[in-house]
Amino acid sequence: MVEYEEEVESQVSLNDYLRILYRSRWLIIISFIVVFSATVFYTFTTDPEYEASTTLIIQSTGVMERSLFDFDYFGNRSTLISNQVEILKSRNLAEQVVKRLDLSDVRDSLRLFQPNEEGEYLSLRDMVSILRGNMQIDHKKDTDVITLTYVAESPFAAAYIVNTIADEYQLLNTKANRVQLNELKDFVEQQVAKKEEELRLSEERLRDYQEQEKLTNLDEETAELVNTLATYEAKLEEAQISLQATLEFKKSLEEQLNERRESLSSEISQISTPYLRSLQEQLAMAVAERTKYVIAIETEAEDANRRFFESNIHLYDEKINALRKKLQEEAKKISSSSMVSDPFQLTQELVSKLLTSEAEIKAGTAKINALQEVVNQYSQKLDALPAKVLELARLERRRKVDEQTYILMVTKLEETKIQAAAQNRNVYVIDKAIEPLEPVRPKKKLNLLLGVLIGLGLGVGLAFVREYFDNSVKSPEELEQLGFNVLTSIPKIQMQKFEKKIESRLEKLGPIEGKKIEARLITHLDPKSPVSEAYRTLRTNLQFSKIENDLKTILITSSGPKEGKSTTAANLAIAMAQAGRDVVLIDADLRRPVVHSIFNMDKDNGITNYLMGTISFDELPKKTFMDNLSVITSGVLPPNPSELLASKKMEELLKQLKNRFEIVIIDSPPVVAVTDAAILSTKVDGTILVVASEQTNRDALKRAYSLLDSVETRLLGVLLNGVDVEGMYGSYYYYYYHHYYGKTGRKKSTFFGRFFS
C-alpha cells in the first residue's frame, strides 16, 4: 500500500493561474456582462450634469486691518482665506441665494423650484441643502484666488446659479465692510468734533488772558519750552487716541463674536499662555524703550550726532516687528487649540486678532507712560516760571496741543473717507461663469472603460475567492502533491456527444433508463471514446502493477457518495472482459445498490441471499450481454450489512469466486460513511479509491485514507473521476484529450494544447 504523505506546497506557476481562470470562465463572463450592462444602463439613462465656475480674488487686508494711528493688526492671510471659504459654504449665504433665485425671472426654469414626481415642492431647507451640496470651492495655493464651481441640470442653470452665488457673496462682503467703515468713521468724526470744540475754547481762553494781562508774546526761551511741551503733549494725546481706537476695535470684534457666544467678551482676556503674556510684556517694554530713545534724541542729542543716533531706531523697529510676528503665531496656535471652548462657532481670525490686540493695548499703554514722563518733566520746568508768564505759557501750550491734535484727527478723517470711497469691499470677480458646452457627468467613455475593468476584475476576483475556499480535489497533480499514486484520470462523460451514436441501441429502454445505462456503460457502448480509453488505461496499469501476489480481487470504494465508484466498477469490469478475462462484478453496497440498475437486472437472489443460505453458489452469478462478464447483485437489503460482509461465509465466497473467475471486482459503500468498505478491504488483493474531481473534499479524502490505513489495506492507488477536460486549461490532460480525441474517434490538435503540452 502506498504510504500517505502530508501535502507539500509547490510553487504556483502561470499555468495554475490560467487553469483557475479557464475553469471559472463562465463566472468571469457572467460577472463582466452583469457589471458592464449595469454600467451601460446607468451611463445612458442618468440625467446629464453640467458644471460652471467663476473665479474670485480676495484681498489679503480688509478695511479694519489698515494702519490706523501707527497700529497694524497684521491679520494672517491663510486664516483670512479659510474664513472666506467658510462664509461661501455658510447656510446664511445659501439662503440669500435661494431667495434671490426665487425672485428672478428664470425661476421656473430651475429644478430647485420644480415639483417632484409626487407633485411636492422642496422646502427652503431642502433647497439650501441641495445648493450647498452642489457647490465646490477650491483655493489655489499661494494665491488669494478662489474658484467657485456649481453643478446643475443644464448649462444655463449651472452658470446662472454660480454667478448669483458670487454676486450675493460680494454683497455680503460689502455689507460687512461698510459696518466696519461706519464704525471707524463715526469714531474719527466724534474725535474731530471734540477736538474742534477744545481748540476753540483754548483759543478763546488764550485771547482773553492776553487782553486782561496786557501780555502779547512769550520770550524766546519760554516759547521754545512751550513748543516742546506742546509737541510731546500732542504725541501723548495721539497715543491716547490710538489706544482708545484699539479698545474700540477690540470691542467691535467682541461684539461680532458675541453674536455667536455671548460669554466670549468676559473670557477672551483669560485665554492666554505664559509665553503669550511674556511676549506681550516684551512688546510693551520695547515700544516704551523706543519712545524714550526717540525723545532722548530729539531733546538731548546735538544736530551733528542726531543722524547717527536716528540710524539706530531701526534696531528697535526690527525687535518690535519680530515680537509682533511671534505674538501672531502664538495667538494663531491658541485660537485653533482646545483653549477656545467652541472652535466650530468662533472664527480663528477674530480670536487671533483679539489676542494680538491685547498686546497692542499693553504696548500703547507703555508708550503713553513713557510720553507722560517726558510731559511731566517739561511741566515741572514750566511751573518754575513767574505766575503771569506761567499762565500765558500754559494757555499757549494748550492751544498748540489742541491745534496739533485737531489737525491730526482731520487728517485721519480724510483718510477714512478716502478709504470708504476707494474700497468698501475686498472681494472681486475675475472671471464670470459661462455656460459649459459639454456635461461633466456621466463621463461615458470613462464609465464604459471602468465597467469593463470592474466587470473583469470582479469576475477574476470571484474566481480566485472561489478557488481559495474550494477545498476539493480537481487535478491529478493535486493528488500527486498529497502523496497518492494516481492510477488514471477519467474524463467527465459528455452524454450529448454520444446520443446519436447509441440512440438505436437504447430506443427500446426509454429516455431515463437509456441515459442511465449510457452513462454507466460507456466502455461497452462507445469503446472508441476518451472515457473508454481511460478505463483501458486503468486496466493496463492494474495488470502491470508490481505486487507480491496476483491481483485477482479488487475492491472499488470512495470517500463519499456519488463519486462514481459504481460506474468505475462496471466499466473496469467491462474493460477487463473486453481483454478476454473472465470477470465477475459483485454489488457489495448492501445499503444503496445500483449495479443491477446499470445492467438492467433484478437485484433479487443476490449476495445477501447466498450469505443467508437461501440460494446456492451456482445460482449466484448472473450472465450479462458479454459472454465473459457476470454480475452478482446485492439481493435483499439486510438490516446488518457489516456483519454479513465480515462473516466467514463471505471469505469462503471470495475464495470460490477466485477459483472460478480470473478477476473479481467488488463495488462497496463509501468508506467514510460506513465500515463495510474497510471490512472488505482486508479480504481482497487490492483496493482502488475513487475521487470525484471538483467534488471530493481533501479532508474527506485524508479521512478515507486514514480509515483504510488503520486496517492495513493494500491501496493500489486513487482514480480521479469526472475530470472536466474543458476546465483543465493548461494541464497535460487537456492536451491529451484534445490532441487525440477532438471528436469521437478522430485525432485533433489545438494551439493551446501544443502550447501547454
From TrEMBL:
Residues making up the signal peptide according to the UniProt record: none
InterPro entries the record matches: AAA_dom, Bact_polysacc_biosynth/exp, GNVR, LPS_length_determ_N, P-loop_NTPase, Wzc-like_C
Residues forming coiled coils: 178-267
GO CC, any one term: plasma membrane
Domain AAA span(s) in chain numbering: 564-712
Membrane-crossing residue ranges in chain numbering: 26-44
The Tyrosine-protein kinase G-rich domain, residue ranges: 393-467
GO terms of molecular function: ATP binding; identical protein binding; non-membrane spanning protein tyrosine kinase activity
Reactions catalysed: L-tyrosyl-[protein] + ATP = O-phospho-L-tyrosyl-[protein] + ADP + H(+)
Places the protein is found: Cell inner membrane
Top EC class, one word: transferase
Domain Polysaccharide chain length determinant N-terminal, chain residue ranges per copy: 11-100
Membrane topology designation: Multi-pass membrane protein
Keywords: ATP-binding, Cell inner membrane, Cell membrane, Coiled coil, Kinase, Membrane, Nucleotide-binding, Transferase, Transmembrane, Transmembrane helix, Tyrosine-protein kinase
EC number annotated for this UniProt entry: 2.7.10.2
Protein family per UniProt: Belongs to the etk/wzc family. Belongs to the CpsD/CapB family.
The protein's name: non-specific protein-tyrosine kinase
Native source organism of the sequence: Caldithrix abyssi
